[in-house]
Amino acid sequence: MFYLNSQEEKKNMKALFKLEYLLIKRDVLTFLLSIGMPVLFFLLFSSFMVFQDKELERVVIRNYLVTMTGFSMSGFAVFTLPNMLKLDEKNKWIIHIKHLPIALFSYYTVKICRVLIGYLLSIIVCFSVGIFMKNIVFTPFELISTVCLLLMTGMVYIAVGIALNCLRSFQLVSVVGNIVYFVLAIFGGSWIPVSQFPEWMQQVAKFVPTYYTNNLVIEFLNDKALNVTALVVTFLYTIGCLSFAYVIQKRREVK
């Protein structure tokens, strides 16, 4: 076990961030797809959202922008994060780090920071497209509060991604991560409002965390009211996924 002073820790963190930057440059296509696909979906589907009531049309398209932004963000945590972690395990990078004067906490912090950078890029690009190409309007308060809520609710996606990393193989993580990514988007109402689903799908949607994250952000944006139930459920999902991952990891360490 290594005991690091603050100077050593800063130096190691800087080295890890530099390495992560190089990995991002090498994997820039994943960044582009995670942001580009939701943007294309938004532009395509919003073009069909034409109503006689223009105020209703404005609200519907703005809501759709928010849910598609959440969909874009989830890709960095639900798909990319567990794949990164599992690939590092496969390449023995985790074992290598354990033999270096680098705290594992620093390693995971850098990985989560990479996800948060992806979150910010998703928000900037998606909102810029909505504002400048679709003339969507936010007041300063609406914009700031929506961004903050998107980042806050995005923690549940990180928790899901960490839980997915508990799967044994890289191939399994990749396949299941893809499935979970699209299930969260579809049943959470990111593509189509849950109210338009058949009754059985609406019931299933209530077991999906994105159903609550989307409701939390959209209700606050439109009604300026905090959906406490959605907030609590989102928090419980986050704690549940992290606890699951922690227990599985501890059991494997014992074995």
Whole-number count of domains: 1
Main beta-sheet strand count, sense and barrel state: none
* DSSP helical segment count: 10
**First and last CA, distance:** 20 Å
Strand content: under 5%
Unreliable stretches (pLDDT < 50, length at least 5) are none
The 3D shape can be described as globular
Kindly state the mean pLDDT as a whole number? 90
N-to-C series of helices and strands = HHHHHHHHHH
Number of strands: 0
Helix content: over 70%
How is the quaternary structure best described? single chain
Provide a descriptive summary of the structure in words:
It is a single chain. With 255 residues, this protein is mostly helical. It has one domain. It contains 10 helices and no strands. Helix 3 (54-90) packs antiparallel against helix 5 (104-133). The longest helix has 37 residues, at 54-90.
Please write out the topology.
Blueprint: H1 6-26, H2 28-46, H3 54-90, H4 93-98, H5 104-133, H6 140-164, H7 170-187, H8 199-205, H9 209-223, H10 228-254
Helix pairs in contact: 1-5, 2-3, 2-5, 3-5, 3-6, 3-7, 3-9, 5-6, 6-9, 6-10, 9-10
